Amino acid sequence: MSGDTPAPPLALLAELTHRCPLHCPYCSNPLALDRAGAELDTAAWRRVLGEAAALGVLQVHFSGGEPLARRDLVELVGHAARLGLYGNLITSGIGLTASRAAALAAAGLEHVQLSLQDSDDAAGDDIAGRPGAQRDKRDAAALVREAGLALTVNTVLHRRNIERLAAIIDLAVGLGAERLEAAHAQYYGWGLRNRAALLPSRAQLDAATAVVAAARERLAGRLVIDYVLPDYHARRPKACMGGWGRRFLNITPSGNVLPCHAAETLPGLRFPNVGEASLAAIWRDDPAFARFRGTDWMSEPCRSCERREIDWGGCRCQAFALTGDASRADPACHLSPDHDAMALARQEAGESAAEFVYRGYHSGAARRAISPLAGS
Amino acid sequence: MSDSSPVDGGSILRFPPHVKFRFDETRQAWIVLAPERLLLPDDTAVEVLKLVDGGRDVDRIVDALAATFDAPREEIAEDVIPMLQDLVDKQVLRK
């Protein structure tokens, strides 16, 4: 497919800020967080949203950090809606007020994804690193519903909350959610740093999968449950981002344009900034976007695999994190020569009583030097 | 909030406010946008969804399709009702 103009992306993840009132140890943000002073301003985001719509993007996910920390959030949501973009807000709910929820709805926001760390308030506050967080989230859910916005509850599953999944599902229904995203923690950045404390056992995973199957049947038509299995217990990799540079754009708070939110963990790739080129030019021409697009970059066992255009070799960031080489097969695949890395991590988690390192600005930069396999 | 009985001929369906069924000029195709979902309905499904307006019941949708495609309405109903049920289960449509 090299040489062809790639099909336009479907979605944009707009990371408006890295500022966040929570400190979850599996945060998908990088270890080195952007400071407020480095963030794109309102005019830049408005221009970028216009470029995204012109390029063919259909959905924009306003995320962070905590996007409510941006004073111009309502303006940006309104601008996206006028461009015909389907607007989704991914939020902790901390800082949402009735007037802000109403303003977001009036501006044309379609949907809110509210993070919920646990069904148990004390455990939820503990993982979020913020006393009272769970109470604020319950209030935020009510505000979202009162504003007439559709609500999804997002819960990251890990070893310390997975056994309460049934209660989490009940709470999501009680909060008025129409959808629950129950996704296992992913092990990049902060998650990789805390992997030994997060990774569930096989028995925990099997029990949770059974809980989901029963709840889906019981709640059909009331609650849609999207359940994402963890790679570390898988035989096959996921089609990460639907393939590198195929469907998805991510823009960091300072304006770097990435094929996925973890892409800056990869060495040897320089990602363009929105100040340097239009999104259309970046999508079409940028070498970092072309680097792992399609199948030409693959080596064996991916290159001749019949699933190469189904899973696209899995995740480049996971391949790098676990093997030190981003162009190898994702070790989640049972055909990968590095598949043992998954078993090693499971064993390490099983033997570990590791404590969390909470997300924050304190020492992120220093932790960039951590070697890929030294997850704990 | 929503009626959980199965879809039948008397069901009246509509798109919830946060689900958008529209034509995309970039791709020259009809699309359905929903939370974290993008559906690309095939030509037949597009014809069905164009008839979902919160007013007509399923029997009248089937009548209209039987006329358009000049096909027996029982056959159409056999295809259309499970498709609509699936979309209701996924909350793309609401009763």
Distance between the termini of chain B: 10 Å
Lateral arrangement of strands in the main beta sheet of chain B:
1-2-3
Whole-number radius of gyration of chain B?
A: 13 Å
Helix segment tally of chain A: 15
How would you state the average pLDDT of chain A, rounded? Answer: 91
Q: What is the count of β-strands of chain A?
A: 9
Low-pLDDT runs of 5+ residues of chain A are 363-376
The CATH architecture of chain B can be given as Orthogonal Bundle
The largest pleated sheet of chain B is described as: 3 strands, antiparallel
Order of helices and strands of chain A: EHEHEHEHHEHEHHHEEEHHHHHH
CATH homologous superfamily of chain B, by name?
Coenzyme PQQ synthesis protein D (PqqD)
- C-alpha Rg of chain A, in Å? 20 Å
Overall geometric form of chain A: globular
Order of helices and strands of chain B: EEEHHH
- Largest sheet, strands/sense/barrel of chain A: 9 strands, mixed
- Oligomerization state: heterodimer
Using CB atoms under 8 Å apart, which protein chain pair has the greatest interface? A-B, 24 and 19 residues
> Which structural class best describes the helix and strand composition of chain A?
alpha/beta
Q: What fraction, in percent, of the residue positions of chain A are helical?
A: 25-40%
- The tally of helices of chain B reads 3
CATH topology of chain B: Arc Repressor Mutant, subunit A
Please describe what this structure looks like.
The complex is a heterodimer of chains A (376) and B (95). Chain A has 376 residues and is of the alpha/beta class. Chain A has helices at residues 42-55, 73-82, 98-107, 121-128, 133-146, 165-174, 189-193, 195-198, 202-218, 279-285, 287-291, 308-311, 316-323, 340-351, 364-367; strands spanning 11-15, 59-63, 86-91, 111-115, 150-157, 179-184, 224-228, 248-251, 257-258. In chain A, a hairpin with a 5-residue loop joins strand 8 (248-251) and strand 9 (257-258). The longest helix of chain A is centred in the middle third of the chain and has 17 residues, at 202-218. The relative contact order of chain A is 0.14. The longest helix of chain B is centred in the C-terminal third of the chain and has 17 residues, at 73-89. Chain B is globular. Helix content of chain B is 39%, strand content 15%. The model of chain B has no long low-confidence stretch (mean pLDDT 91). In chain B, strands 1-2-3 form a three-stranded antiparallel β-sheet, with no helix packed on it. Chain B has a single domain (20-89), classed as Arc Repressor Mutant, subunit A, CATH 1.10.10.1150. At the A-B interface, loops of A face loops of B.
